[in-house]
Specification:
alpha+beta; Beta-Lactamase; Heat Shock Protein 90; 6-stranded antiparallel β-sheet; 5-stranded mixed β-sheet; 13 strands; Sig_transdc_His_kin_sub3_dim/P; HATPase_dom; protein dimerization activity; phosphorelay sensor kinase activity; two-component regulatory system
């Protein structure tokens, strides 16, 4: 494995946000009809050096491959490919041809790679890549968005073009749902299944030791089994929460946001969180509810961790044609916050994941510095 030292000085957060905006525009302009599966966790994103070494990878991208972001930091993309595919991954990272001597130097490009998960399972992925500047002018970085391409279906001949478009969308949705089921099944089998098997073996071993009179050894095993059970319960709750937040399911979006705000306010004594919600749950499109909840959740986490704010104001309103979300804080401001490798996945890639969630649903995402400090994150969707 090849390790790399992250570039210094650290990349600025606004450069990363700008790179995501350029990446999204280039995707729409060059491949407007591209179809791919969206993960329930959100966008699978990574930042790499120009040589393909991973500076940071968010949880969605790491989980896609069965790792954590910390495990992948410093490795090269070719390192997480099957040995039969490594040469092709290298070729894609340093693509040369007769007409374009150095395609890898282009600001935006897209290409296909086959990477391997922790279990060695080969996974074809389509990669959208945007090059952007780092603190070192001679060492640009690359923002990568990983998507799972949909296999092509056979040609269909519905009588009307509109019917054909609707049919195609339904096929993509069905295949996307199938991919999500497959991934959930793999997580349950590889994570929960193995954890439960380990607990079963530990309890059986403890029972055998009790029969032999080894009470102290059995007690130690049972204590370890209890800890493993707690971890497994936490993992199960995390998987369920990623599919759909429990509070959102039970209470509806306005009440779920209120509960989230109170929880954050209670966890930080010096922080005041004010929620102003001018819409009823029934007025919010179902397909936007989970995304809005995730965006607010991610924004609150970032503010608590990085902004040192004393007040956060969240507004969810609507006008005649749009649904409007605004999150403002009086903290340090993102323009003064350098993005370091140890917080890139939790702050920088989290923010551009929010941006991707908004724009994937046809919305507009903006992030700006307040006149008197702080940051405002806003999103707008057409109803």
């Amino acid at each position: 494995m090849h390790a790399t030292t992250p570039p210094e000085p650290p990349v600025r957060l606004r450069d990363l946000i700008d790179a995501m905006r350029k990446l999204g525009k280039a995707m729409r302009d060059t491949e407007p009809k591209a179809a791919h599966v969206s993960d329930a966790r959100g966008a699978a994103l990574a930042v790499t050096t120009s040589g393909g070494a991973i500076v940071s990878m968010n949880r969605s991208a790491a989980a896609l491959l069965g790792y954590t972001g910390a495990e992948l930091a410093g490795k090269r993309l070719a390192d997480i490919a099957h040995e039969d595919d490594r040469a092709d991954v290298e070729r894609q990272l340093y693509a040369f041809d007769a007409n374009e001597p150095c395609r890898s130097s282009r600001t935006f490009r897209s290409f296909d790679v086959t990477l391997a998960g922790r279990t060695g399972h080969r996974m074809p992925l389509h990669v959208y890549q945007q090059t952007f500047a780092s603190g070192d002018a001679d060492a640009p970085l690359r923002l990568l968005l990983f998507v799972e391409p949909l296999p092509a279906y056979g040609e269909t001949t519905p009588p009307e073009a509109a019917q054909k478009d609707a049919y195609s969308r339904s096929i993509w949705l069905t295949r996307g749902q199938q991919r999500e089921r497959e991934r959930l099944a793999a997580e349950l089998h590889d994570g929960m299944g193995q954890a439960l098997t380990l607990i079963k073996l530990m309890v059986e071993d403890a029972r055998m030791r009790l029969r032999r009179g080894q009470a102290d050894d059995a007690a130690q095993l049972l204590d370890a089994a209890v800890l493993q059970i707690r971890d497994t319960i936490g993992e199960m709750r995390q998987i369920c929460g990623e599919l759909r937040p429990l509070a959102l399911e039970r209470l509806g979006l306005p009440a779920a946001l209120s509960t989230l705000c109170r929880r954050v306010e209670q966890s930080v004594e010096t922080l005041r969180v004010v929620l102003s919600c001018g819409v009823e749950d029934s007025e919010i499109p179902e397909h936007l509810k989970a995304d809005i909840f995730r965006i607010v959740q991610e924004a609150l986490n970032n503010i608590v961790k990085h902004a040192a704010a004393s007040e956060i104001r969240i507004e969810l309103q609507r006008d005649a044609a749009h649904l409007l979300l605004s999150i403002r804080d009086d903290g340090a401001g993102y323009h003064t916050h350098p993005l370091r490798p140890d917080d890139a996945s939790s702050n920088g890639l989290g923010l551009i994941g929010m941006q991707h969630r908004v724009e994937a649903q046809g919305g507009a995402f903006t992030m700006s510095a307040g006149d008197d400090g702080g940051t405002e994150v806003s999103a707008r969707w057409r109803l």
